[in-house]
Design a protein that fits this description.
GO biological process, one term: translation
Structural class: alpha+beta
Function: Removes the formyl group from the N-terminal Met of newly synthesized proteins. Requires at least a dipeptide for an efficient rate of reaction. N-terminal L-methionine is a prerequisite for activity but the enzyme has broad specificity at other positions.
Radius of gyration: 16 Å
Distance between the termini: 28 Å
InterPro entries: Peptide_deformylase, Peptide_deformylase_sf
Bound molecules: zinc ion
CATH topology: Peptide Deformylase
Strand order of the largest sheet: 1-2-3-6-7
CATH superfamily: Peptide deformylase
Keywords: Hydrolase, Iron, Metal-binding, Protein biosynthesis
Shape: globular
CATH architecture: Alpha-Beta Complex
Number of domains: 1
Protein name: Peptide deformylase
Oligomer: single chain
Length: about 180
């Protein structure tokens, strides 16, 4: 199982590389990685397991964050209706997105960043993502609100982008016109 000691932090080169596509159909090893990423997120959200293994709670994790530069991510977060959105995704790709932007009022955090970086990260309010799931099947997800933000944060990791790259250092709390605030 993945624990905090497996998660690389800022300064590790894997966080700044462009991750490579997973060969399809995914190998057992790649599927195992996807499963382990999702398991970390699930374990971290279970208070007892998180406490027992010292896991920092997270809503998403990407393979580069365990030093593996492959295009695999996991997300687990509730949507606005309280529905649990929980997926391990191989080769996730944003195939379309809204013009409208959205941002988390609380800002973003990252399991690879051991400090608070204040500021708003403006992302697409809605995204459609195509990916390969744990069974090797193509799936299409339409996400909005918090799940859309989390998915974009994780896909950024596959492109060597950190959330704070999106924050304007001179004006960290500037709001893009028409961008919708999201509370979580
Ligand atoms: Zn992150």
């Amino acid at each position: 199982m993945i624990t905090m000691k497996d998660i690389v932090r800022e300064g590790h080169p894997a966080l700044r590389e462009k991750a490579v596509n997973v060969a399809l159909p995914p190998s057992e090893e790649d599927k195992k990685t996807a499963k382990q990423l999702l398991e970390y997120v699930q374990n971290s959200q279970d208070p007892e397991t998180a406490k027992k293994f010292g896991l920092r709670p997270g809503v998403g994790l990407a393979a580069p964050q365990i030093g593996l530069t492959k295009r695999i991510i996991a997300i687990q977060v509730h949507d606005e209706q309280g529905k649990l959105i929980s997926h391990a995704l191989i080769n996730p790709k944003i195939v379309s997105h809204s013009v409208e932007k959205a941002y988390l009022l609380s800002g973003e955090g990252c399991l690879s960043v051991d400090r608070d970086v204040p500021g708003y990260v403006h992302r697409y309010a809605r995204v459609t993502i195509k990916a390969i799931d744990l069974e090797g099947k193509e799936i299409k997800l339409r996400l909005k609100g918090m799940p859309a933000i989390v998915a974009q944060h994780e896909i950024d990791h596959l492109n060597g982008i950190m959330f704070y790259d999106h924050i304007d250092p001179k004006n960290p709390f500037s709001v893009v016109e028409g961008s919708v605030p999201i509370e979580r």
